[in-house]
Amino acid sequence: MVQNDYYQLLNLDRDVPQAEIRKSYRRLARKYHPDVNPGDQSAEDRFKDIQEAYKVLGDPDKRKIYDQYGSFREGQQAPEGGPQDFGFRGFDHNHSGGERGQGPFRDIFSDLFGAAHRGNRAAQASRGQDREYSVEIPFLDTIRGTQTRINTARQDVCSQCKGLGGTSQLKAQPCSVCAGSGLIQKVESLRVKIPAGVQQGSRVRVAGKGDSGRLGGPPGDLFLVVNVGTHPFFSRQGNNILCVVPVTLSEAALGSEIDIPTVDGMARLKIPPETQSGQKFRLRGRGAPRAKGGQRGDQLVEVKVVLPKTLDERSKVILREFAERNPQNPREEMTLDD
Fold first, then answer.
1. Number of domains within the chain
2. Which residues, in sequence order, are CB contacts of 327 under 8 Å at separation 6+?
3. How far, in Å, CA of 221 to CA of 26, rounded?
4. CA distances from 161 to 129, 176, 184, 210 (A)
5. What is the pLDDT of residues 142-167, one digit of tens each?
6. Quick check: pTM over 0.85?
7. Is residue 241 within 8 Å of residue 286, measured between CB atoms?
């Protein structure tokens, strides 16, 4: 019998890159696979032909022999010379060569029809839905990282019908537990790690904790949407931490060293003389860490000058003398004149 043209069987030109051969085979294998075309002998024959073609063209060394001689047979030498063993054992669409589930087509069938290659049932398998769950994390815990426990509801495989939607394929009545859906509602308690550096609205992925898949499909994922709690004196701007620190009039005017809070604990900050209210100072590396690693941000300290709530007569005299000795109008440029 005249051998089929392997390139024509795979709908390919003879000079296509090697990667295109695999792509074409995957497309045709899915179309003509016997499990997709039950009882169709012509589809099964076509499937065997394209499988035979891919077994040769899908191997770069065997393809060289085929391109050189226009055919391939067992024991045939490569164009470079030197014997090579290309034993062709025939094929079976369930397991090609060697033990069951092994051989050159195992990975492709795993991609097309599921790792267990379960025929029509595998073709109907579907991945479970992803789920979202909002969680509030205290401000400092988002900077340092923490663990939190949540109770979340998800769709799980029905324990009675094992996700098939009925207790038996022979019974017409659906499963009484899941009403034929194959899934049931389940509340699960999870302890979840929150990485350091998460921000408002960050999504933390918990793999495989979404809804279960149907008919053996993989589960979806759970995504925690982070709401960051407020803090009495810290706020966040990107990866920088902002803190407003009150200072006295004398500390701002004469200069001082003061204790200030940081997310790592207390620290000393030098206030230079003649510091203005609203002036900002930077503490490098004292901010929030980047969620995916890397250098931390900074802490920005904004100074706010505060006056005493009550003044005795002697203090008033001193301030009047101070004003006389230091005459100035800080608003002189605030004019509406053109």
1. 3
2. none
3. 28
4. 20, 9, 11, 20
5. 999 999 999 988 888 887 777 666 54
6. no
7. yes
